[in-house]
Specification:
Elements: H1 2-12, E1 19-24, H2 27-40, H3 44-50, E2 51-55, H4 61-68, E3 78-83, H5 96-100, E4 106-113, H6 122-130, E5 132-136, H7 141-154, H8 161-171, H9 175-188, H10 197-204, H11 212-220, H12 224-236, H13 243-261, H14 268-275, H15 282-291, H16 294-311, H17 321-332
Parallel strand pairs: 1-4, 1-5, 2-3, 3-4
Helix pairs in contact: 1-2, 7-8, 8-10, 9-10, 11-12, 12-17, 13-15, 13-16, 16-17
Length: 333
């Protein structure tokens, strides 16, 4: 995030490079940088003749270079943005000669998404030397909570840990989806109020009480009443709570619990780091470890694998999601 801020800050201060090569598995920041360049490098009256968006599926590297070598019309520079540039991978080395001596009046932006660029290539060294090479790495789910907190803090908002984890549980590590939901919250909530699970429920539609986040907690604590209430809710709302996701998250929970049982150092910081979980969840694992000894945990993992197959229709027919969820709860608790 800091690197993105620096790139944007440089552009805002007039330090614009002739080539921006934006690559990586996480598309969110690639789109953010490209969008900022598209909106801010040229004035509105300059864009009609001096700004174009091309697509890697539709053009060749030669086409791009032909356009890049043109001079701008009645403007200091021209901007060429190539989206889906990963489709040019087979011929991307054709950029080498241009990158040695790029047209200084052209801003060439490559959005090379969903893959890692080979840094052994000569082109990589030239891109670093002559322009901006930015790699957008995927954020693991256990780190997304911190990303949400920081993004909101930068915008003047705050959020409770439980509320941010609720977003992560439902949206995973898709930063684009999360960002859209955060924008919804910022439109309706004031900065002087901390965002809570109730705000998430009211404005995004994620139940604060009936979700996988709370189900894991209830099962770990052997709270049968609460777990049953959540399971019944899932059964009544199967589209919003697919059993495949529920089983996957429970499998992850009990797999980590098995690892917890093997730890000799149960210091919360050590547990958080070793299991790859947010410190907020450490207490839940401590409680669950008391309720489920290692042998029981191993058996539950086998049960979850069996029910995962049933949930996908393997070996069963005409079994409702609700019945499978109830079977799951009975077998676990």
């Amino acid at each position: 995030m800091d690197e993105v801020k620096q790139i944007v800050s440089d552009i805002a201060n007039g330090r614009v490079y002739p080539i921006y090569f934006l690559t990586g598995e996480e598309p969110y920041y690639i789109d953010q940088i490209a969008s900022y360049i598209e909106k801010n490098v040229l004035r509105e009256e300059e864009k009609s003749f001096n700004q174009m968006v091309l697509y890697g599926k539709e053009v060749s590297v030669d086409d791009i270079l032909t356009n890049a070598k043109r001079y701008p019309m009645m403007a200091e520079r021209q901007v060429i943005i190539i989206k889906e540039a990963q489709h040019l991978a087979r011929n991307i080395d054709k950029l080498v000669d241009y990158a040695k001596n790029p047209q200084l009046t052209t801003v060439l932006v490559f959005c090379y998404k969903y893959s890692k660029f080979d840094k052994r290539k000569k082109l990589f060294k030239l891109l670093k030397e002559k322009g901006v090479f930015y790699e957008s790495k995927k954020i693991y789910e256990d780190k997304v909570h911190y990303w949400i907190t920081r993004v909101l803090k930068d915008a003047g908002y705050s959020i409770t840990t439980k509320a941010s984890m609720l977003l992560v549980e439902h949206l995973g590590n898709d930063l684009s989806k999360i960002s859209k939901e955060l924008e919804k919250l910022k439109l309706v909530l004031s900065k002087d109020k901390e965002i809570t699970p109730l705000d998430i429920e009211k404005n995004i539609g994620i139940s604060k009480d009936h979700n996988n986040f709370e189900l894991n907690k209830a099962i770990g604590a052997r709270d049968i009443v609460k777990a049953t209430r959540i399971i019944n809710y899932f059964a009544q709302n199967p589209k919003d709570n697919p059993i495949v996701l529920t089983i996957s998250l429970l499998h992850g929970f009990f797999t980590k619990l098995l690892k917890y049982h093997s730890l000799t150092d149960l210091n919360p910081k050590t547990v958080s780091k070793t299991l790859g979980i947010n410190p907020y969840f450490v207490e839940e694992y401590r409680i669950a470890a008391k309720n489920y000894p290692m042998k029981k945990v191993s058996r539950i993992i086998s049960i979850l694998r069996e029910l995962d197959l049933k949930g996908k229709g393997v070996g069963v027919s005409n079994v409702s999601q609700g019945d499978l969820l109830k079977e799951l709860l009975v077998k676990i608790i």
